[in-house]
Amino acid sequence: MELPVVILKRVSDIRNYEAIQDGIKALLDKFKKKVTMPDKATVIIKVNLCMLMGSETGATVDPRVARAIVEWLKSSYNIERIIIAEADATHLSADMAFKALGWRKYFREWHPDVELLNLSDDKRVQTKTCFGTEIEMSEKYMNADIMISLAKLKTHSLQKMTCTMKNLFGALPEKYKIRYHHRLTDAICEFASARRPDLSVVDGLIGMDGKGPINGFPKVCRLLIAGNDMIATEYSCARLMGFKPKSIPHVAKALKLGLGSSRYHFEGDILENNHLDFKLMPLWEELFRKLIKGIREKKTARPYEKTGSHISDV
Amino acid sequence: MINNKKKLRIGIVGLGRVATATHIPVLKLLEDVEITACAEKNKERIHRVKEFLNMQNVFDDYKEMYKSKLVDAVYICVPTHIHHDATISALQSGLHVLCEKPMGRTVEEAVEMSLLAKKNNLILMPGFKYRYNDNLQHAAQIISSGLLGNIIQVEATFMTPGPYISWDPKSEWYLEKKHGGVVYDIGVHIIETVNLLIPNKINHIYAYSSQGYHEYDTPTNVSCSFKMEGGITGNVIFGWRSSIDFTRVSVFGTGGAIVVGLKSFDYFNAGTDPKDRIYSHIRNSFTEAKTVTKRIFSIIKGSEVSINDLEQAKAFVNSIRDGSAPPVSGENAVNVHKVLRAIEDSIQTKKEITI
């Protein structure tokens, strides 16, 4: 069987759109034959806009990367419809994020035919997860011919890193996703398995290290990464960040559940083991936070923060 | 005045984040107070809060709650544009009011609210919670005692990540211009803090602003220069979109200077030597440690409340019980509103505004 592929490109000048566009083109051209795109396809791009923080902070995806993907899709295939999608997050509505972070204005200017979709407002369909549970997801998200995950390269206070799989967790239409945080590993696998991406692209132009995914420091990496298997992409990104892939709880769990492959072919401008040395929160602080969080959840959790019903015990 | 033997019955108007995460947990800590009714339009919130608080008296119209005779005082925790109507109706119904900041959206609204409270002999307290901060209180005492000599200049900063990052309001209204944006969310606090430290009125102001959120025309970041009565000059900057919460006021006098924040306090004068600086650092570390420890204990006890909010609630209840003047009144809010309006006008006209 053909091994999945992960490819990495370095962008010489991240301020320059042409350099980003060239990077995306060089990256995605390698997947042209690997992605089966039907004629007049509908493509959905799930982006990560979890906070009202610009891409320069490392918290959210750069709209220029999404634009470069849109332009590559249009120039490479006969596409009928492109949708850029995000669901409401605990702290933010996706519509507000699209507006306030300038995505709506930007795509109106460059690609007015691209639809910006709030997955939380879309019609929902039932779907099965890797745990056999039934969950509701957006109809357009589930029924699109091709789904591309466009994630950010960030550290995560609970999971060490957040990338493609955590981005897919964000596709759950439910707003109060924080209620799944006490069993985040299972929840990420569960919701990411609802629909695995055909292509995983990671915006590593400016990542985030330290207290990610929102309180960390911007980390300028100048990288774009793409893979045709979500686990392989997570593996590769973990290695780049300087982590052992199996030490990432959701990656290890997803591998056990057979959601992807840890064996893949890597091709890049820099070596995968050329660690970018992403720093995590200090261990003492992490342990202290966990202790306080545990007490808080027990004692002061508000009703909407209580456990969700979708998470299986598997 | 309320009978001291009876529990003070408080009603909550609006069951959004500020009520459920801040005021309700605080009020539940006070033994001589009980929350007897709530008013909220959103059915989902009503359902959640009924379950969470075991609260049966939930009205979908606050005026019905006022008429019910179930409450002696109310907390107004609704979006800004409803503050005026909710407060005026409460005062007309003979209820004491704690109104979340800003106390109304305009100077006229604040004046009307303040006058009605006075006329009906009721307590009207704006929710200026930073007034109860130990460091700011200490700074205000030092300045009023004359230890800084004549005050000559002030610099004040209040930066936050913004409402959708540091906490999670349930709707978009914070970004709508009619609610005043950052001027009425953050500006209100820092202007009130300057007023607390230096009672001289601000009478000239020039402001610049920037809009950091695309497609929302509300300002997100503001810088102003001002002049106060007595010739004191100063600068204020405040805004959203910062990666950190940061509050600091520097007051310079002919006899000394104070640099004060919510968790730090430094006092200097010409005689300050390195020893004093070390002492100051140690004291600030202790203050920080005390705050963290208090917070941890409150989490362990199951009630995560801010000390400033708790002190504010106590002050409100005490004023109602003994009929004394509250530490901050409607008139204070009116003065703050005058400055906020001048900031808005200056941003719009690009001119200096005389208040």
Describe this protein's structure:
The complex is a heterodimer of chains A (314) and B (355). Chain A has 314 residues and is α/β, with parallel strands linked by helices. Chain A has one domain (5-303). Chain A contains ten helices and eleven strands. In chain A, the strands form two sheets. In chain A, strands 1, 2, 3, 4, 7, 8, 9, 10 and 11 form a nine-stranded mixed beta sheet that branches. Chain A has a two-stranded antiparallel sheet with strand order 5-6. In chain A, strand 9 (199-209) and strand 10 (217-227) form a beta hairpin. In chain A, helix 1 (17-29) packs across helix 2 and helix 7 (184-192) packs across helix 9 (249-256). The longest helix of chain A is centred in the last third of the chain and has 18 residues, at 283-300. Chain A starts with a strand and ends in a 14-residue tail after the last helix. The model of chain A is unreliable at 303-314 (pLDDT under 50). Chain B is of the alpha/beta class. Chain B has helices at 17-29, 43-53, 62-67, 80-92, 107-119, 134-145, 163-166, 181-197, 274-300, 307-322, 330-349, and strands at residues 8-13, 33-39, 58-59, 73-76, 96-100, 124-127, 151-159, 202-210, 221-228, 233-239, 246-253, 257-260, 265-268, 353-354. Chain B is built from eleven helices and 14 strands. The interface between A and B is medium-sized, with 25 and 27 residues.
Major β-sheet annotation of chain B? 8 strands, mixed
Total helical elements of chain B? 11
Give the terminus-to-terminus CA distance of chain B. 36 Å
Poorly predicted runs of chain A are 303-314
First-residue to last-residue Cα separation of chain A: 29 Å
Enumerate the spans of chain B where pLDDT stays under 50 for 5 or more consecutive residues.
none
Which descriptor suits the 3D outline of chain A? globular
Multimeric state: heterodimer
What best-fitting shape of chain B do the alpha-carbon axes yield?
Answer: globular
Order of helices and strands of chain B: EHEHEHEHEHEHEHHEEEEEEHHHE
Biggest interface and which pair forms it?
A-B, 25 and 27 residues
CATH class of the largest domain in chain B: Alpha Beta
